Amino acid sequence: NTEQDEEINLLDYWRILLKRRWTVIATLAMVLIIALVKTMLTTPIYRSTSIVQVENDTLQVTKFEGVEPMGYNANFLETQIGLLNSRALAQRVVKQMGLQQSGELSRLWPASNWQRLTALVRGAPDADDAAVATAASQAPVKEDPAAINALAASFQGGVSVSPVGNSRLVRISYDSPDPDFSRRAANAIAEAFVANNLDRRFGSATYAKGYLEDRLKEMKAKLEESERQLVAFAQKEQIVSAGGESGTSLTEQNLGALNSAYAAVKAERIRAESRWRQAQGLRGSGLQAAAGEDPMIKTLQESRAKLMLEYQDKLRLYKPGYPLMQQLKAQIDEINQQITAEEANIRSGIQAEYQAALQQEKMLEAQLSQSKGEVLDVQGRSIQYNIFKREVDTNRQLYDALLQRYKEVGVAGGVSANNISVVDLAERGYKVLPDMSRNLTMAAMAGLLLGALLAFGFEYLDDTVKRPEDIEKKLGLPVLGAIPQLKAPMTPLRALEDVRSAFAESYRSLRTALQFSTDHGVPRSLLVTSPVPGEGKSTTALVLAQMYAQLGKRVLVIDCDLRNPSLHRQLGVENSQGLSNYLAGASKPTDMIQPTQTPGLLFMPTGPLPPNPAELLMGPKMVSLLS
After folding, report:
1. In whole angstroms, what is the distance from residue 212 CA to residue 406 CA?
2. What local confidence, expressed as pLDDT, does residue 30 receive?
3. What pairing do the DSSP bridges indicate for beta strands 430-433 and 159-163?
4. How many Å apart are CA 340 and CA 347, to the nearest integer?
5. Are 112 and 54 contacting, i.e. CB atoms less than 8 angstroms apart?
């Protein structure tokens, strides 16, 4: 439904435009004529363009780690464009081109009548008039700051600066009525911009060099003073540094060495103590494993094994008391005693090793405690020393950085590289204004828009009824039907002869709508009227009456048009007597009713036309007649 409503609204707008098309056409023609005349009367403007390249290669006065120069970005380019549009650059170009002496700007852009009038009211000539008068005098002219400022402001009116896409190129254009002046002005702006940038770079290099010289002197004196304080304090407190980047003292290095040695000795003592504790509870092979491979014990164990094997072998032949057996037994006991003695020696060795490690640990521990005390004492006295040392290191780094930067600035100032260069010089200006096709196109669009607005405005102010929907909107009454208007030479009678015509079909639709207009069918009496004459009242009344008569109903048509009756002519009856006679009281109603050629259709004509039809129709006899 929403889409249908929108479509209907659009169609309504289109119908309004079609209806008011002459308003739209007239407005369009008027706007086009105005635009054409204005375009033809406009002074031609010529444009010349030069192109410069801008690189982000600025000179840095100071440079420290962590602070890097900004890369090339849109802000830098916008800054350069702002410099190109600056008043200072315009003043430089005005002086360079000698515009104060030549008076070209005043000839190219003469003052308007309004400007002349306002200048006359102020009682003082403007700067352009003064420049022209000065140039005409042919006398040497001194630079007048006020005149230069006024000429620079006027000159800036023709300058336009824009970047070239995503590049580092800038387009400098100048518009004026003279194509040669536009070329010279665009080239002068580009050259002045390059020269102005060089001047700023030389000034920056000179300032940077002087600034760095002063800072170097201050930093050198500060570095020497901090070094003297550091040496004097070290001599006073007897602090000797081992040097190097760490800056640790000899006492601290000794403490570190003792701490490492103590850790190694302590680990060795723990291992020796562990071996000693194990050796106290071990015998035989276990003790040998704790002490390591001992060749003496291994040899004795092998000899004892051989003797015991021999003893067991001979025990099958001899008794233990046999001399040979006793001799073997004595040898085995001797070897056992030797093994026991060797194990005792091993335990003594492990114990001695443990005692030596323990003694060494105690000695290093004492030395370490003493060294710690010395280090703490030195550290307590080195707090101020470290402060002086850090200050010396900081001052030395700053001094080296400033010295390096001073050398770079000196080299850069000698090279005098420029980060701005002219890519293309301007040529003779080409015409940009007025643009006939563009102006006419814009005027056509504006004319159409204005014409459409006027058409809608007139339509809004027009409150006449033009469509059936207007009846429902304005009067709040239902529309029963719409009868199309016939074009000459077609007449209603001829149109009704074709029962399939739109004219006949519309009346049949109206008859059907009347049948469903009430709950009891067609109303007993119908009044057909219109606000103006000639809208089809008589035709509608007659056609509806004939249609209802054809349906078998008895119908009476009363012609109440007491000014211009026409139904009697269409029905072919006399109009000598009729409604006016009845309303005047001269006859009865039944005497005025006449039959027609259509069965069931009766007709009461108007009769003689009275001088006062409104008074007769408003009388009680008309109400009685209808009743």
Report:
1. 6
2. 96
3. unpaired
4. 11
5. no
The two structure tokens encoding residue 386:
């470290």
- DSSP letter (8 states) at residue 499: T
Distance CA 482, CA 499 (A): 17
* Cα–Cα distance measured from residue 124 to residue 146, given in angstroms and rounded to the nearest whole number: 13
- Tell me the per-residue pLDDT of 350-383, one tens digit each, with 9 for 90 and over: 778 777 877 887 887 777 777 776 666 666 666 7
Label residue 552 left, alpha or beta by phi (over 0 means left) and psi (-120 to 50 means alpha): left
Torsions phi, psi for 594 (to 5 deg): -125, 145
Provide φ and ψ at 577, rounded to 5°. Answer: -135, 150
Torsion, Cα 416 418 419 424, to 10 degrees, reads -160
Q: Of all helices (H) and strands (E), which one includes residue 126? A: none
The answer, yes or no, to whether the previous bond of 589 is cis (omega within 30 of 0) is no
C-beta neighbour count of 441 within 10 angstroms: 12
Please give the Cα distance from 621 to 141 (Å, whole number): 108
| Residue 163 three-state SS | strand
Determine the residue type at 435. D
Contact 529, 559 (CB under 8 A): no
For residue range 483-512, list pLDDT tens digits in order. Answer: 888 887 888 778 887 878 888 899 889 888
Q: For residue 25, what are the CA distances in angstroms to 16, 21, 34, 453?
A: 13, 6, 14, 12
Output b/e per residue, 134-161; b: 16+ Cβ within 10 A: bbeeeeeeeeeeebbebbbebbbebbeb
Check: CB of residue 396 under 8 Å from CB of residue 307: no
- Distance between CA atoms of residues 47 and 435, nearest Å: 13
Tell me 216's DSSP state. H
160: helix, strand or coil: strand
Confidence (pLDDT) at 557: 94
What tokens were used for 101? 């002496």
Q: Distance between CA 451 and CA 83 in Å, rounded?
A: 46
- Name the 3-class secondary structure at 238: coil
Does the pLDDT at position 81 exceed 60? yes
Quick check: helix, strand or coil at residue 78? Answer: helix
pLDDT digits (tens, 9 = 90+) for 400-415: 887 787 777 666 554 4
